[in-house]
Amino acid sequence: MPLQPAQLRNALATVVETDIGKDIVTAGMVKDLQSDGDDISIEIQLSSADSPLREQIKEQIEAALRQAGQEHGEGVARVNVTFSSDMRSANERVREETNPLPNVKKIIAVGAGKGGVGKSTVATLLAIGLAKQGAKVGLLDGDIYGPSMTTMLGLRSLESKTENNQLLPFEVHGIKAITIGKLVEPDRALIWRGPRAHSAFSQLATQTSWGELDYLIVDLPPGTGDVPLSLAQLLPLAGAVIVCTPQVVAQDDARRAVRMFEQLGVPILGLVENMSYFVADDGKEYDLFGRGGGQQMAAAMNIDYLGEIPIHPDMRIAADTGEPLKNWEINEAMSNAFDCVCKNLAQTASLREPNRPTLSVQ
Ligand code: ADP
């Protein structure tokens, strides 16, 4: 008996597109799959007609199907791989074809190459800072493996509500917010992978009743996993903000995150350097981790630098006690730094033309 469709799909799911680090099935690149006896025809969609990965993908597919044939005691007589190209990236397609949140003007993802750099802290500061400047803002805690907004926004005692099968966001600190942390036990969220992570994230992203918003800030899990890909396929993004710390050792991870968003066709709105320096009570500034590393990296990568956020123990306390507005009360240098980053983001977001054509394969 020839290989069955599920066996074929499983075999194709072992073929990884090295640029985006995803298998070709998860990445939605398999556009057609036909088998006629031992003859198998596969159409692979690439983002660029002359992708240098064509030959590599073809060879990997042939090898994967031969191996599946051997494992199931079947011969695979002929594999015909054809390529088509849709010059639009994942996010351009969703921008043009579907928009589940038409009342949200700008959706901005906040990502980081690795955990612990203050991505959720910066996402919260951006959301609240933009709201302080008069915008209507929503904050979606998409860090479904380690949601922190329940604590950071002080949502623990509030009750989740739904209306007409839609989740109602919490209205706190001048913004609207939703987090998976209020919907499931946090320990369970941590073990989600692949399709379950996608469906949990997709429910949060598309079934929350935000009403009219100027900005929706999406806090993503750290790294280059499945959620950014889901986000780019689900919601039309105005762009992404990358958070990093100043150390040179942290920059490789941040670079990878930048590349991933570029690959998905999501414009980079800019880079924020967190934990840049410490401002003492006498106003004196101390460099702890090599202030300016983020700015140099942004310049080298030709992306906007949105500014630096100092490190201060009161920021950690504001996060742990769920009182983010207290960040603006720490001292003037700190509140100026937050406002400056938010103002720069509002500017770069309004200057970006979201539908500019993007060539994804470099
Ligand atoms: P990530 O989302 O990147 O994992 P978090 O935003 O959760 O990181 O921050 C990790 C920890 O560092 C939290 O306890 C947070 O309060 C603290 N933190 C983040 N940025 C700062 C800062 N600039 N000053 C002091 N503490 C900070």
Summarize the structure in words.
Helix 4 crosses helix 12 (332-351) and helix 7 (194-206) runs parallel beside helix 8 (226-234). Strand 3 and strand 4 form a beta hairpin. The strands form 4 sheets. Strands 6, 7, 10, 11, 12, 13, 14, 15 and 16 form a 9-stranded mixed sheet that branches. A 3-stranded mixed sheet has the order 3-4-5, with helices on one face. It has a two-stranded antiparallel ribbon with strand order 1-2. It folds into 2 domains: 5-87, Fe-S cluster assembly (FSCA) (GMP Synthetase, Chain A, domain 3, 2-Layer Sandwich); 93-351, Rossmann fold (3-Layer(aba) Sandwich), CATH 3.40.50. With 362 residues, the protein is an alpha/beta fold. It is built from 12 helices and 16 strands. It starts with a helix and ends in an 11-residue tail after the last helix. Mean pLDDT is 86; it is low at 354-362. The chain has helices at 5-12, 54-71, 90-97, 119-132, 149-152, 186-189, 194-206, 226-234, 248-263, 293-301, 313-320, 332-351; strands at residues 16-17, 22-23, 30-36, 39-46, 78-85, 104-112, 137-141, 161-163, 166-168, 170-172, 175-179, 213-219, 239-244, 268-279, 285-287, 305-311. The structure holds adenosine-5'-diphosphate (ADP).
